[in-house]
Amino acid sequence: MEGLVCVDDFEKEALRKLGNVTRAYYRSGADDELTLKDNGAAFSRILLRPFMLRDVSNRDLSTTILGKKVTVPIGISPTAMQRLAHPDGECGSAKAIETIGGIMVLSYFATCSCEEVAAAAPNARKWFNFYMHKDRTITQGVFKRAEKAGFEAVVLTVDAPVIGKRRDIERNPFDFPPHIKLPNACPDEEELSVSKAHDDIDHGATWEAVSWIKSVSRLPLVLKGIQTAEDAIHAVELGVDGIWISNHGGRQIDTAPATIDILPSIVKAVDNRAEVYLDSGVRRGTDVFKALALGAKMVFVGRPAIWGLTVDGTKGATKVMEILRDELDLTMALTGVADIKSITPKFVCSRDSLSKL
Ligand SMILES: Cc1cc2nc3c(=O)[nH]c(=O)nc-3n(C[C@H](O)[C@H](O)[C@H](O)COP(=O)(O)O)c2cc1C
């Protein structure tokens, strides 16, 4: 890992190491990959406004998420099949989160079970990602299992009623290695397979499912994949605890806007009635800072953790998360803020607005 000093360094090294099929699976976005590219470009369009002569000698990156402390407001998004990157898989990502004190979100299509992840990183905060099963008794069972394993919240993915068209994956068709299992998606250990797990999903789920989840689960509910103020308001009215702005890392509907561009309108619509989180395209501490400035309470990364895992398993994922934490800390010091609650919209601006300030 020597010489790898930023997330982009890890990405380059991981892309070099991975085989064609796995590289295509992890890297690709939908269609022309315009949203994939814009997710990153949009962060670069936002400028920082550093303030001077403030005491930033002691900085505190901690904050409160769903009523409990995190040491740093950075987490790992649910990404499927992390054992294709490294045998440590999701356990490695969870350990990385345990080290930095963020939140690990385990994918429904994880290759480590929620019990394994809990045992590997007992002190990490963990949330459980899920899709609605056609058989709701199974979904209810999933909640109970996740809660028993110490997962604190459930995260419903709402932006994938079907899978987006990822051309690179079509060119490099996915060949699921038989030794890899999906122990969370399907309770019957003998029948685990990606296509079965996908077939079992209720692709017709509507807002009614959200009301149902609220009525059967005691765990806080987060909706992941919200991209409009209208949907955010709907979610809040149904009592959802967290609105997770995401375009699935540009993998679902191409030409959807970059998440950082829609964050302000959604924060305004939610009006503190739920927490707002964001992922898609976050690669630097300055990106995290910009999302916090525009109203996100917590910021997540998907592929960066995979690049870390690919490069050096748990150690690589940990290094990536430490880099992001340290870059956030540095950004705070250089913009003149000593704690997370002081990161407000005045610290960011667009190039066009510079002459009007
Ligand atoms: C390989 C891969 C697998 C993913 N699997 C899931 C998943 O199982 N559930 C889910 O809600 N999102 C999934 N996502 C989306 C991520 O949770 C996250 O929204 C996205 O990766 C964020 O963008 P970033 O990779 O630019 O950080 C996946 C993304 C990738 C790249």
Automatic annotation (TrEMBL):
Keywords: Oxidoreductase
Pfam families to which the protein is assigned, alphabetical: FMN_dh
Catalytic activity: 2-hydroxyoctanoate + O2 = 2-oxooctanoate + H2O2; a (2S)-2-hydroxycarboxylate + O2 = a 2-oxocarboxylate + H2O2
InterPro entries: Aldolase_TIM, Alpha-hydoxy_acid_DH_FMN, FMN-dep_DH, FMN_HAD, FMN_hydac_DH_AS
Cofactor(s) needed for function: FMN
Sequence similarity: Belongs to the FMN-dependent alpha-hydroxy acid dehydrogenase family.
Residues annotated as domain FMN hydroxy acid dehydrogenase: 1-353
Xref: SUPFAM superfamilies: FMN-linked oxidoreductases
The protein's name: FMN hydroxy acid dehydrogenase domain-containing protein
